[in-house]
Amino acid sequence: GERLAPPVGSSVYVAGYSVAVVGGGQVGYIASVQHWLRRRGLSAEASFVASLLPAAINVPLCALLAAIGMGYLVVNRQLPWPFVAAFASAVAIIIGVALVAALLLARSSAVVALADTLAALYARIRRHDHDGSAMVAFVERLGAVRGPLLSGGWRRPVLADACSIVGDMATLELMFVATHHALPAPVLLAGYG
């Protein structure tokens, strides 16, 4: 497999999120990371995975933190019901997307069929002939990433993201403390998530 040195990966990660904050959002992050990694010689599949994996790890972790904080606020009746309903809807969507992604990862043939169907739809919209072989080959090569991730390769990225989240939350709490408006931990968890 292709390797990316941790200092390079960290600098690309930080630079990509700088693009996201300045105005590109998640799409800007993904596009900039893919562009920079492709220029460094990584394959299309490796740059694609490297651009999506941080968000695929970060979003569920933030949702978990938010669920813990919101759960505490709901149990202690510190949250109005419209906020509870909105949060429950957001969590349901995130859980649904995560379950669909997990099911698709477990069944690579389903991912290939879905990719081919989407490519055919895209070709029909653009009024071009459909040749799904390139898309199917790309998805099959991406499927090779599944093995290393499922055999423990997910642990270090999740730990790194958890450390990043703890650092972000500590910085945020210190900013509130500096303004003499310290937040209770559950409110910080719910707000950060």
Could you characterize the architecture of this molecule?
- The structure is a single chain.
- α2 runs antiparallel to α3 and α2 (44-75) packs antiparallel against α8 (185-192).
- The protein is globular and about 60 Å long.
- The protein starts with 5 loop residues before the first helix and ends with a helix.
- The mean pLDDT is 79.
- It is 84% helix and 0% strand.
- It has 193 residues and is mainly α.
- The protein has helices spanning 6-39, 44-75, 81-106, 108-126, 133-143, 146-153, 155-178, 185-192.
Descriptors:
193 residues, mainly alpha
Reconstruct the topology from this structure:
Blueprint: H1 6-39, H2 44-75, H3 81-106, H4 108-126, H5 133-143, H6 146-153, H7 155-178, H8 185-192
Helix pairs in contact: 1-2, 2-3, 2-7, 2-8, 4-5
Condensed summary:
The protein has 193 residues and is mainly alpha-helical.
Unreliable stretches covering 5 or more consecutive residues: none
Helix count from the secondary structure assignment: 8
Run of helices and strands:
HHHHHHHH
Largest sheet: none
Number of strand segments: 0
Amount of beta strand: under 5%
Percent of residues in helices comes to over 70%
From the N-terminal CA to the C-terminal CA, the straight-line distance is 33 Å
- What structural class do you assign from the helix and strand content? mainly alpha
Rough outline: globular
What does the radius of gyration come to? 20 Å
Task: Estimate the mean pLDDT confidence.
Answer: 79
